[in-house]
TrEMBL record:
Span of domain Protein kinase: 100-399
Region (Disordered): 37-73
InterPro entries: CDPK_Ser/Thr_kinases, EF-hand-dom_pair, EF_Hand_1_Ca_BS, EF_hand_dom, Kinase-like_dom_sf, Prot_kinase_dom, Protein_kinase_ATP_BS, Ser/Thr_kinase_AS
Listed name of the protein: non-specific serine/threonine protein kinase
Family under the similarity heading: Belongs to the protein kinase superfamily. Ser/Thr protein kinase family. CDPK subfamily.
Keyword RNA-binding found: no
Swiss-Prot/TrEMBL keywords: ATP-binding, Calcium, Kinase, Metal-binding, Nucleotide-binding, Repeat, Serine/threonine-protein kinase, Transferase
Cofactors: Mg(2+)
Organism: Vitrella brassicaformis
Broad class of enzyme this protein falls into: transferase
Basic and acidic residues composition bias: residue spans: 48-59
Length: 588
């Protein structure tokens, strides 16, 4: 009891409340004492100071006696090829990436900061997104973003390479996009240059945005926060590709529907007025109920880009298409269709989105084609059941008018030879090729990206069996038997979806490049070998290989016998391990 009276709750940084939801100590009598203290300081720290402080706090709290098992730091177990660094995260992060003290911060906000880093092994530049988790809901957003970026594989969606975690701080190593947001390009043309963006240029950008969105929707993923600020140019080149970013507010439709709640609302409109005019029955009931029950989904996103159904709280994936319609209008006109700066606020913008139609006059849009206006109207249809989907939009007449045949010249018989050879590769070689495809800078694989787009006739970010057959006919490549074509697609996706993703396509075509290009081969294979050697033994054991192959689903369908068979195929000296020379020979 004396110990209980003398006990004083130690100060805990308020930013750690999310990770340590109920911190406290247990006294000699076994009684648990919880404590929370308000913030006593609001001093701003540099990202480096935040990382150091979070690490110190986490280490000290982890070592505190009597800590509850269920209040351990939140763990995020996501990594590209092997489990992320956890206990020694900061050391491993600094080991693999070089940080710079000044001049390399790309942005800073309430979530944390983004800065340029350099991968020490390859010398490639990447971006590091630092997120300090301060509440459970923030953790859920970060967790969702990591889970989705892990699944998404599309040329117009930002890549995530790996994640690290130190205490309550998460570091996402992501693709570096140097060209700035699409919003800046709109401002540059319409405010600085005082000119409209050409319809041909808008068409190229819209095709990429719709392609990325269609890819997500096919996987039942809803972005929920599409806006020009969340679409970046990969480089500063005039013809740079676009990358959709920020999946923190995204979610699967099944998860959105599961979190929906039933609410009771006053009946509105003509029927509501009639219900209140009719007399009440002797039992006290109304002839027409005054209230209705509706299912409300969680609203998310930026109010200026919300669809009508998102504002009402009943939506599906087509809410993204309305947001794209607003972006489309801005690209054509330089103005927001429902927002007047200095006049409107969030509430008036929502009212305009619900009740007003955007101006489609030549003064507003310039001399755009009738097909462009038609697509714009279909995207901005307030009735989401009538609204055109992202997949349907890609087949709209506006895109057919100037179908892009530029990439067709990139198709050669070697493309299909690479796809056929992939099925014969050892599973380890397939995993390494898959890893290298993610690691290589897109400047290096620019020609492969164009080959992929040439085959992707539907523009949805995947290649179907029919796409491959059509491509083979175009270049005069002999069409293999149907049974072999099925085996080719099964080697990429054992689930039988008959689709080849972007990264899988790159993996298949990288095999020959590694074989014949010395500059790519030595450096990249050495980095891949180190990643597979998760136990840092200087050689790859069966346990290390199994851990590496299953951490991101690459080879997760393999049994232990199949993993051992892979080892036996490569292990020439029969010592039970794969050394560097054996690994190198396997990849050639």
């Amino acid at each position: 009891q004396q110990q209980q009276q003398q006990y004083q709750a130690p100060y805990i940084d308020p930013r750690l409340y999310g990770a340590y939801a109920q911190m406290g100590v247990r006294d000699a009598a076994g009684v648990w004492h919880e404590h929370r203290r308000p913030a006593t300081t609001n001093r701003l720290l540099t990202p480096e100071q935040e990382r150091e402080r979070a690490e110190r706090r986490a280490n000290s709290l982890d070592q505190r006696n009597g800590a509850r098992p269920d209040t351990a730091p939140l763990r995020i177990k996501e990594h590209l090829l092997y489990p992320d660094y956890d206990d020694k995260g900061r050391k491993q992060l600094d080991k693999h990436y070089e940080f710079f003290r000044t001049g390399n911060q790309l942005g800073k906000g309430s979530f944390g900061s983004v800065e340029v880093v350099r991968h020490r092994a390859t010398g490639r530049w990447r971006a590091c997104k630092t997120i300090a988790i301060g509440a459970p809901e923030e953790f859920e957003l970060v967790k969702t973003e990591i889970e989705l970026l892990k699944k998404l594989d599309h040329p117009n969606i930002m890549r995530m390479y790996e994640t690290y975690h130190v205490g309550c701080t998460v570091f996402l190593i992501i693709e570096l996009c140097e060209g700035g947001p699409l919003f800046d390009k709109i401002v540059e043309y319409h405010q600085h240059k005082r000119q409209f963006i050409t319809e041909q240029q808008v068409q190229q950008w819209m095709r990429q945005i719709l392609s990325a969105t269609s890819y997500c929707h096919q996987r039942r993923i809803c972005h929920r926060d599409l806006k020009p600020e969340n679409i970046l140019f990969r480089t500063k080149d005039e013809n740079s590709d676009l990358k959709v970013i920020d999946f923190g507010l995204s979610s699967t439709l099944s998860r959105i529907q599961m979190s929906a709640k039933e609410v009771k609302e006053v009946r509105k409109g003509t029927l509501g007025t009639l219900a209140r005019l009719l007399p009440t029955l002797p039992s006290g009931k109304h002839l027409i109920p005054w209230h209705v029950r509706r299912v409300k989904m969680q609203r998310a996103g930026t109010p200026h880009y919300m669809s009508p159904e998102m504002i009402r709280g009943q939506y599906d994936e087509k809410c993204d298409c309305f947001s794209i319609g607003i972006i489309f209008y801005q690209l054509l006109s330089g103005k927001h269709p429902f927002y007047n700066p200095g006049i409107d606020n969030e509430e008036t913008v929502k009212a305009r989105i619900l009740n007003e139609e955007p101006l489609m006059t030549p003064d507003a849009l310039g001399s755009v084609s009738l097909q462009a206006k038609d697509l714009l109207k279909r995207l901005l249809d307030k009735n989401h059941r009538r609204r055109i989907s992202a997949c349907q939009a890609l087949s709209h007449d506006w895109f057919r008018l100037s179908a892009n045949h530029v990439h067709l010249s990139k198709l050669t018989p070697s493309v299909f030879e690479g796809l056929r050879d992939y099925q014969h590769h050892n599973k380890i070689k397939q995993a390494v090729l898959n890893y290298l495809a993610k690691e290589l800078d897109e400047r290096v694989i620019e020609d492969l990206r164009k080959k992929f787009k040439a085959l992707d006739k539907g523009g949805d970010g995947t290649i179907s069996l029919e796409d491959v057959k059509t491509g083979m006919r175009l270049v005069g490549y002999p069409l293999p038997p149907s049974s072999e074509l099925s085996r080719i697609f099964e080697s990429f996706d054992p689930t039988g979806s008959n689709r080849i993703g972007y990264n899988d396509f790159l993996s298949a075509l990288l095999a020959k490049r590694i074989k014949y290009e010395d500059a790519v081969r030595e450096q990249q294979l050495r980095a891949a070998f180190e990643r597979l050697d998760v136990h840092k033994e200087g050689r790859i054991s069966a346990a290390a290989l199994r851990e590496a192959l299953t951490s991101k689903g690459m080879g997760s369908h393999l049994t232990e016998e199949q993993v051992q068979q892979c080892i036996d195929e490569i292990d020439k000296n029969r010592d039970g391990y794969i050394d560097w020379d054996e690994f190198y020979a396997c990849m050639l």
